[in-house]
Amino acid sequence: MAKGEIVINENLCKGCGLCVEFCSRGCISMPEDKVSSKGSLLAFFVNPDRCNGCGICGWMCPDFAIEVYKYVETKKPSPA
Q1: Are 66 and 17 in contact (CB under 8 A)?
Q2: How many Å apart are CA 72 and CA 53, to the nearest integer?
Q3: Which of 10, 37, 47, 51 is the most buried (most CB within 10 A)?
Q4: Is the pLDDT of residue 79 over 80?
Q5: What is the rounded distance in angstroms from the CA atom of residue 28 to the CA atom of residue 21?
Q6: Domain residue spans in the chain?
Q7: CATH class, 4-70 region
Q8: What is residue 8's three-state secondary structure?
Q9: 40: which residues sit within 8 A by CB, 6+ positions away?
Q10: Can you tell me whether residue 7 is helix, strand or coil?
Q11: Contact, 27 vs 50, CB < 8 A?
Q12: Contact (CB, 8 A) for 57 and 68
């Protein structure tokens, strides 16, 4: 089960590839068929099952195009 999710703002992504380079889990790719209206390649979240929500991709993005969400497990209260 995924522990994190990222959302990439295509209007802000300029296709620098830093998110792809620094994601150690291989969750982000830059497919050649996904291009912005400005003509640059766009990052794409490809392996959501592997994402742990570490946030490194968002930290490395110079244009703040990536939002990272980390899922937190809540413990069920034990019966009294």
Answers
A1: no
A2: 10
A3: 51
A4: no
A5: 9
A6: 4-70
A7: alpha beta
A8: strand
A9: 13, 14, 15
A10: strand
A11: yes
A12: yes
Q: In this structure, what are the phi and psi dihedrals at residue 43, rounded to the nearest 5 degrees?
A: -70, 150
pLDDT single digits (tens) 21-36: 999 999 999 998 888 8
State CA 27 to chain mean position distance: 7
The two tokens of residue 14 are 């300029």
3-state helix, strand, coil in the chain (%, to 5): 15, 20, 65
Please state the φ and ψ torsions of residue 59, each to the nearest 5 degrees.
-65, -35
- For the chain, what's the residue count? 80
**Residues 6 or more apart whose Cβ sits within 8 Å of residue 28:** 6, 8, 19, 20, 43, 44, 45, 46, 57
Between CA 62 and CA 13 the distance in angstroms is 9
- The first and second tokens of residue 47, run together, are 């392996």
pTM listed for this prediction: 0.81
